[in-house]
Write a structure and sequence with these properties.
With 608 residues, this protein is an alpha/beta fold. Helices cover 64% and strands 10% of the residues. It has 2 domains: 3-202 and 266-338, ABC transporter type 1, transmembrane domain (ABC transporter transmembrane region fold, Up-down Bundle); 360-437 and 520-604, 3-Layer(aba) Sandwich (Rossmann fold). A 6-stranded mixed β-sheet has the order 6-7-8-3-9-10. The structure holds adenosine-5'-diphosphate. Adenosine-5'-diphosphate (ADP) is lined by residues 114, 370, 373, 377, 395, 397-403.
Length: 608
């Protein structure tokens, strides 16, 4: 095993000891009882045979048999108990692993969420943890520990008797036989280890080839079963093509599984052949010792059975050591993902709690480029604004509007310059407190299949009057009044069969209501009316002042007519603010705003 592979194995061990100490202990106890169990009968039977041979009375024999039976019974009971507790938790800990990865995803720097490399790593780690990486690793570790218990017990049985080899020729013969036996054990171990490494290498290749196929199959299957996608597929007659594609993937996966089975049988054949050969040699060795009169009849049974156990343990040991290589490969993506470090500096200054809600924001010579990108998306931007202002940000697609918001919310840190809130660099604020300043409705918001109330309050502790007020302000008051289940109405049918399917526009209003409910000093809306019809759009604008009250509202839109109600409009072009002013001022000026306005005017004739 390479140094790097050992590193990943150590990582898994540390991870298990940190998160699942109890399970590790169960694994150790399971290995101990499983390893010990066959030796109770082996040694017991040896003693019993010797007693019979030496003419012991019935009472003694009965006692002996009872000890064996009870010992085996209790040891087996314990083993089953540990096995049950170990396997019962497999599913639970697999879910635990998935939760840890999700927690990691949600707690890491935002930029990782938009980083393709990190997302690939994450999905690869998820697919490798399909059976639970830690559970799988512990299972192989249990095989190794069980083998070690067998080694130790066999040694304990054998070593004391090895010294009674007699004199002269007989002694030399026994030594040669022992040497032969040791060489054979080494050869069995090495042969099995190599066979298992080759097997794992080939299986990994197949696994990696299948990995992407599983993702594609899931994606296609989701499309075929999704209510929304079904409509598109049906209208465009794409369902048959997709179904065929799934069929092809299933066939390839089946072929991969067959190749895997063939490889498994080959590896098993090597395993069985080496076991058979070693058993033959063991019986030969023990018979010779008995023939030379060095061991009793009881010991013949003990040695032969113990050696067979040892060979079995050796087989398992070599195969499991090979599997450790596979585990190292599986752990790699998981370890790399979980080990991603925060790149952002995290400050500790609490955000000033202002009763007057006055916050002053300034961008000072801010430039920004996305990680891994060569070009600046924001260029030397300097501007300031105050709470209570309603500011619109307009500009063509790709001009940097959303990026400006991401910088303000500190989803990304600036590449150059500084952003200050109330005169303090935003990097110095406590990030959790700072993020509480903003309620954002992103273009690609998500509404979940929970109840309406839970969606708005983002938790199951809903403050009902506030939720109702937010929904009314966002223009859903009437709709709410018409819902028999009120705030308990489930959104969509995925979670609850009584759920209601809301329109895209209604969901957008819910996202707006959620932002209002958060009651943060800054309300940011990124194209909040894109899914609304003109009437609903008007409704939102009309209520906008009431909605945001004395908060700072930042409003991004490419529909210029939507922004007329804002006192302050920033016009973005290629990462710079090229114009700033009210609608009337900007319309009166030569420049991009007028150009955009004239281009869009046909849609808003009679409006302005
Ligand atoms: P707007 O909101 O004005 O449409 P954006 O701020 O979303 O523009 O994007 C500005 C530029 O930054 C675009 O060229 C876009 O392709 C690029 N961009 C946006 N997000 C990323 C990202 N995560 N990684 C790299 N480039 C990005």
């Amino acid at each position: 095993m390479s140094k790097q592979e050992w590193g990943y194995i150590r990582f898994l061990l540390r991870d298990i000891l940190k998160r699942e100490k109890g399970r590790f202990a169960t694994m150790a106890l399971l290995s101990l009882t499983e390893g010990l169990l066959p030796y109770i009968s082996i040694v017991g039977m040896g003693v019993l045979l010797d007693e019979v041979y030496n003419g012991a009375d019935g009472k003694k024999l009965l006692g002996c048999a009872l000890v064996i039976l009870l010992g085996t019974f209790f040891c087996r009971l314990l083993m089953e108990r540990f096995l049950e507790s170990f396997s019962q938790k497999l599913d639970y800990t697999k879910d635990l692993e998935a939760r840890e990865m999700n927690r990691k995803s949600l707690s890491m720097d935002y930029e990782y969420l938009e980083d393709d490399h990190v997302q690939d790593l994450r999905s690869s780690a998820f697919s490798k943890s399909f059976f639970g990486i830690r559970g799988w690793f512990l299972w192989h570790l249990h095989d190794i520990c069980k083998s070690i218990v067998s080694f130790i017990l066999t040694l304990c049985i054998f070593v004391p008797t090895l010294f009674g080899t007699g004199e002269g020729l007989r002694a030399r013969n026994i030594l040669w036989l022992m040497l032969g036996l040791c060489l054979m054990l080494g050869a069995v171990f090495w042969g099995n280890y190599q066979a298992s490494i080759r097997y794992i290498r080939k299986v990994n290749k197949i696994f990696n080839a299948s990995d992407g196929l599983y993702t594609r199959k899931k994606y296609f299957a989701d499309l075929l079963s999704g209510a929304d996608s079904q409509k598109d597929l049906k209208i465009n007659s794409q369902q048959n093509a997709l179904d065929e594609e799934i069929g092809k993937i299933c066939r390839t996966l089946r072929e991969n599984q067959s190749s895997e089975s063939r490889l498994f049988i080959k590896r098993k054949a090597v395993n069985i052949a080496s076991s058979q050969l070693s058993c033959f040699l063991i019986y030969l060795f023990v018979s010779l010792r008995a023939f030379m009169g060095l061991i009793s009849i009881g010991n013949v049974v003990v040695y032969a059975a113990a050696m067979v156990q040892l060979m079995d343990a050796l087989n398992h040991f070599s195969v499991s050591i090979g599997h450790m290589k596979q585990m190292a490969m599986f752990a790699k993506d998981y370890a790399d993902f979980m080990g991603l470090e925060k790149r952002k500096y995290t400050g500790t200054i609490p955000v000033e709690k202002r009763r007057d809600n006055r916050f002053q924001v300034s961008f000072e010579h801010v430039s920004f480029r996305y990680p891994g990108s060569a070009e600046n998306v924001i260029n030397d931007l300097t501007l300031s604004f105050e709470i209570g202002e309603k500011m619109a940000i307009v500009g063509k697609n790709g001009s940097g509007k959303s990026t400006f918001i991401k910088l303000l919310c500190r989803l990304y840190d600036v590449t150059e310059g500084v952003i200050k809130v109330n005169g303090i660099d935003i990097r110095k604020y406590d990030p959790a407190e700072y993020s509480r300043l903003f309620a954002v409705v992103f273009q690609d918001f998500s509404i979940f299949a929970f109840s309406l109330g839970e969606n708005i309050a983002s938790s199951d502790k809903t403050e009902e009057p506030l939720v109702r007020d937010s929904l009314t302000k966002a223009g859903l008051g009437e709709r709410l009044a018409g819902l028999p289940q009120g705030l308990d109405t489930y959104v969509g049918k995925e979670y609850h069969s009584d759920g209601i399917t809301f329109s895209g526009g209604e969901k957008q209003k819910m996202a707006i209501a959620r932002a209002i409910y958060k009651n943060a000093p800054f309300v940011i809306m990124d194209e909040p009316t894109a899914a609304l019809d003109p009437l609903a759009e008007c409704e939102v604008y009309a209520g906008f002042d009431k909605m945001v009250g004395n908060k700072t509202a930042l409003y991004i839109s490419h529909r210029l007519a939507s922004c007329r109600f804002c006192e302050d409009i920033l016009v973005f072009d290629r990462g710079r603010v090229v114009q700033r002013g009210s609608h009337e001022e900007l319309k009166a000026q030569e420049g991009l705003y007028r150009e955009l306005w004239n281009a869009q005017a046909q849609y808003y004739e009679g409006e302005g």
